[in-house]
Amino acid sequence: MAKKYGMIHDNNLCIGCQACNVACRSENKIPESVYRLQVWVKQEEYPNGSLGYEYHRQSCVQCENTPCVSVCPTKASHVNEEGIVLVDVDLCVGCLYCVAACPYQARYVHPVTKAPDKCTFCHESRLSRGEEPACVTVCPTDALTFGDLNDPKSKINKMLSEKVTYRQKEKLGTSPKMFIVPNHKGGINS
What we know:
- There is one protein chain.
- By secondary structure, the chain is α+β, with helices and mostly antiparallel strands.
- It has one domain (5-181): Alpha-Beta Plaits, CATH 3.30.70.20.
- It has helices at 19-28, 67-70, 97-101, 134-138, 155-162, and strands spanning 5-10, 38-45, 51-58, 77-79, 85-87, 108-109, 116-117, 144-148, 178-181.
- The strands form four sheets. Strands 8-1-9 form a three-stranded mixed β-sheet, covered by helices on one side.
- Strand 2 (38-45) and strand 3 form a beta hairpin.
């Protein structure tokens, strides 16, 4: 059976340190004016009246039902055999339909190639060597879990069976492979 990669972001463990963002920039040579991955910090007031912080990971959520791929006229945006959404720069004509179609605002135009770009779970580098994405390996609190959703014994499936998770904008039918463990102080917002 082919692999199907997914990731979990645990809001209880994330401290908003941006180590994942820095590692992503370094690994993928991302120019300063854009990002594949960002963690946004927002102060929240919880139902019990206490104040706390919510950390929101902004990146491609690797949809199974991909609006960005379905609108691409040249098939430059495509899904590989491991379920990872990729962009073939050589096939891209720069129409930016994929950027407009992404409900997660996860794509940007690379200032050098002028083609859309996005998180690929480090497919081009680390995954091809059998390593986890850079963001996962540098997280100081282990807030990120990565693995094969088709492997019942994988770390990601073990965590999915133990923790309550949700997926952003799940009602759109995109079936993201980015799962979120909500902060235990608040409710689930998507």
